[in-house]
User: Which sequence fits this backbone?
């Protein structure tokens, strides 16, 4: 039993998150971290790169004490219907994804279908495309995306802050003589719209829709303090799906996991070296 506040019982159950690497469009392979995070297109036979942003996101959620799942739909070769089913089975409260420019229409179509099947799910989009054209994500996608968040790659501190805010404001209200609704911050229609606005405005750089208009909160810098990354999160990814070979100067081949990033120099090699010496 939770606390009683203004006629409702509050249960402080934490929300469940899902980090989603969106699926490839038909007959294309999207390198989502190329071109500064906008992404580029390859053939379906191209190698599958490990998405480093999923690792940073998982580390942020783990260190924030959140319940979460990670799904790399590209690596699993899921189509859009399989992704929709996987999200529904996860029973997540919050979905976080990274749309790319070459696959923007396809990515947003998948998110719209996910939202249609899970209307109470809070769908969040972030990444380079969202930084540059946040309004386009809303205009093209209708109601599929609830929040577009602008910020700096790799979004570790941004996601840490976002997760903490949503956790601290996650409540399940039980109104007298009324049925149970979903989490307060997910079901804005159940309470006053001002409550949702207050919560969203605590997250810097957020775009959301209010009465048909796009509203944004001030963009706040989140200096990337990457000294406490949870490196074991890479076990939550299907590492065998990323395996490749590197040709040594002596003609031999070395098994490796190819990856790319548009991070500045610091800290990212930590993940690279751990993959090299522990994952292989």
Assistant:
């Amino acid at each position: 039993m939770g606390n009683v506040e203004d006629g409702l019982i509050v249960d402080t159950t934490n929300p469940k998150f899902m980090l989603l690497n969106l699926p490839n469009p038909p007959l294309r392979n999207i390198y989502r971290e190329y071109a500064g995070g906008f992404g580029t297109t390859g053939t379906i036979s191209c190698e599958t790169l490990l998405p480093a942003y999923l690792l940073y996101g998982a580390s942020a959620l783990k260190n924030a004490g959140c319940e979460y799942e990670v799904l790399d739909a590209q690596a699993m070769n899921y189509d859009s219907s399989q992704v929709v089913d996987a999200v529904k089975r996860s029973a997540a409260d919050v979905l976080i994804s990274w749309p790319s420019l070459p696959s923007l229409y396809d990515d947003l179509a998948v998110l719209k279908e996910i939202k249609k099947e899970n209307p109470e799910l809070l769908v969040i989009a972030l990444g380079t495309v969202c930084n540059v054209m946040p309004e386009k994500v809303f205009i093209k996608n209708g109601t599929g995306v609830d929040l577009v968040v602008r910020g700096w790659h790799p979004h570790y501190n941004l996601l840490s802050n976002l997760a903490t805010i949503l956790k601290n404001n996650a409540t399940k209200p039980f109104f007298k003589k009324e049925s149970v609704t979903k989490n307060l911050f997910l079901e804005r229609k159940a309470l006053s719209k001002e409550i949702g606005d207050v919560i969203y405005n605590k997250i810097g750089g957020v775009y959301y829709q209010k009465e048909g208009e796009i509203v944004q909160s001030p963009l706040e810098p989140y200096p990337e303090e990457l000294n406490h990354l949870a490196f074991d999160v890479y076990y939550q990814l299907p590492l065998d799906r990323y395996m490749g070979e590197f040709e040594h100067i002596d003609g031999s081949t070395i098994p490796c996991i190819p990856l790319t990033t548009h991070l500045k120099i610091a800290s990212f090699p930590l993940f690279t070296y751990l993959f090299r010496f522990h994952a292989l």
